Amino acid sequence: MLTANNSSQQRAARSCAICGKGPVAGRTIKRRGMARIKGGAGRKITGVTARWFKPNLHLIRTVIKGVPQRIRVCAKCLKTGRIQKYLPTPKPALQPATT
Question: What is the pLDDT of residue 11?
Answer without folding.
Answer: 61
